[in-house]
Amino acid sequence: MSVEVDKAEKKDNVLVATLDKVKQAVELAELSPEVYEHLKTPMRFLEVAIPVEMEDGTTRVYTGYRCQHNNVFGPYKGGLRYHPDVTTDSIKALSMWMTLKCSLVGVPFGGAKGAIVCDVQELTVKEKERMTRSYVRVLGSFIGPETDIPAPDVFTDAQVMAWIADEYSSNMREPSFGVVTGKPLAVGGCVGRNEATGRGVFFVAREAANAFDIPFDKARIAIQGFGNVGSNAAVLFAEAGCPVIAVSDVSGGIYNKDGLEIEKLIEHVKKTGFVKGFPGAQDIDNQELLAIDCDILIPAALENQLTGSNAGNVKAKIVVEGANGPTTPEADQILKDKKVLVVPDILANSGGVTVSYFEWVQNNYGFRWDLATVNRRLEEKMSEAFKMVYHYYCEKCVDSDMRTGAYMYSIKRLAEAMHYRGWLNDKNGQY
């Protein structure tokens, strides 16, 4: 199934932006046009009907997706989200980003993404479990430890992964918990996996601050989104001495110029569900947070948050993309003109897939690392990836941005692998 879309009709579509950036990176890196031809279209896109028996005895049929983008490096890998606003284009873009992430940080996976179109808040726990198990049954052999390995994403968690592992193992008639990552520790999960994406964001933010000669322990941090990624990153920033001066969630934002007490804020969120109303903080809205006077801004919520209409208001020196696709192409150009360093999502939030790789390795070999080992290996991976991409950007992309450099660096690795596997019709060894 082609991922070509009508650009005139879908100006703000994340898939259009991703395809444009991939094509630009292929051309700037002077790679064969065949590389773009391979990357622009997923290898497989599955749309499935998922029948679920509801608590009242009726059956409801949900629509599910699994997009398997590219497996030149190894098994497909990517999250599974449950959300009512899923689109096929967003799933294709997310799977493509996963391919680029895995290439960038050097883990032997390809990119994938899955979804079920639903509002999980309307489902009971049993209905959610039945839906998850039905999804596994209809996908059948299209997932597996050496084929395609799902992971938690929006509105899915370790429990959902445990259901998938159990259903898949039942279908295979043998324990096969490596079919997913992000599982509970009791069934082969990895310590540190839940915090891994936020921890990775912290590591690359620290590297970016060092590159910009910003004293890290004094760097003022603003975080849009206080879910798993944003809250875990906030804890680490606070522990490092960085004042986290503003955060936001769906309820709005809060601000304290001297820094928020993050541990108390987390307790407040556990009790109330939201950051709003936290004692000792000033209420602000989302647009005010994005324009707050800070050193490092971390959009860790949804796609298309920094746009052509608000990027000019950004006062941060560095933007670290904790979310996937939070910055539109128009905003990228504005931030580049303002000399704001944007650390792109395919680098900044790749901590999750990195520790997922650690979990997969441990499942395959039947052993476990301790938390200190996992965190140390993650820090090594993230720091090395930042330094390699930043060096490449400074050397090759001085007239462009770090996103372009990251795409070029990642795609050159993919092209090399496709070359050696014989996927490209190389001429004179050029790819």
Strands, helices and their partners?
Elements (H helix, E strand, L loop, with lengths): L13 H15 L4 H7 L4 E10 L5 E12 L5 E7 L5 H18 L4 E7 L8 H15 L8 E5 L5 H15 L23 H16 L9 E4 L3 H12 L4 E6 L2 E4 L6 H11 L9 E3 L1 H5 L5 E4 L18 E3 L8 H9 L3 E3 L1 H4 L2 H15 L5 H26 L5 H20 L10
Parallel strand pairs: 3-4, 3-5, 6-7, 6-10, 10-11, 11-12
Antiparallel strand pairs: 1-2, 2-4, 7-8, 8-9
Helix pairs in contact: 1-2, 1-3, 1-14, 3-14, 4-5, 6-7, 6-12, 6-13, 12-13, 13-14
Short characterization:
The chain has about 425 residues and is of the alpha/beta class.
Describe this protein's structure:
Helices cover 44% and strands 16% of the residues. By secondary structure, it is α/β, with parallel strands linked by helices. Among the domains are: 42-180, Rossmann fold (3-Layer(aba) Sandwich), CATH 3.40.50.10860; 196-339, 3-Layer(aba) Sandwich (Rossmann fold). Strand 7 and strand 8 (252-255) form a beta hairpin. The longest helix has 26 residues, at 371-396. The two termini are 25 Å apart. Mean pLDDT is 93; it is low at 1-9.
Question: Which tags fit this structure?
Answer:
431 residues; alpha/beta; Rossmann fold; seven-stranded mixed beta sheet; 14 helices; 12 strands; disordered N terminus
Strand order of the largest sheet: 9-8-7-6-10-11-12
CATH level 1 name of the domain at 196-339: Alpha Beta
CATH topological fold name of the domain at 196-339: Rossmann fold
Give the N-terminus to C-terminus distance in angstroms: 25 Å
Q: What is the CA-based Rg, rounded?
A: 21 Å
Largest sheet: 7 strands, mixed
Give the averaged pLDDT, no decimals.
Answer: 93
CATH superfamily annotation of the domain at 196-339: NAD(P)-binding Rossmann-like Domain
Class of secondary structure makeup: alpha/beta
Report the principal-axis shape.
Answer: globular
Instruction: Please give the count of helices.
Output: 14
In total, the number of strands is 12
Bin the helical content. Answer: 40-55%
* Poorly predicted residue ranges: 1-9
SSE pattern: HHEEEHEHEHHEHEEHEHEEHEHHHH
CATH architecture call of the domain at 196-339: 3-Layer(aba) Sandwich
What is the percentage of strand-forming residues? 15-25%
